[in-house]
Amino acid sequence: MREQHRDRGAAAVEFALVLPLLVALVLGIAELGRAYHVQTTLSNAARDGVRVMALQNDPVAARVAARASASPLTLSDEQISVTPASCAAIGTTSAGTATVTVTYPFRLIGGFLPIDDFTVTGQGTMRCNG
To answer: What whole-number distance in Å separates Cα of residue 65 and Cα of residue 60?
Structure first.
């Protein structure tokens, strides 16, 4: 009977030791899921923007399409790079490929993890004129 009385607080001490690791693991999984969601959203936005650029040959419309596709995220024109400036064929050179690159600064929510903020990038490439 006396042995059981000694082990009474052992579970609470073990739980107190393991709890920080479990919390860090759960927060890490949540942040990884958020980062993956943002990266997928940016990739889709870049793909939609490059589709507009390749078909309409209009960089402004490509940026508008990319911003509209990434609707939960707020993007500026500086974060959306469209190259080349024109998809039109020059002389005997046929039209090449258009590329839209979208960058977004990803900030961690809690600041509990020992990781700095980083930039997430989505890129889309398509042959000009469809």
So the answer is: 9
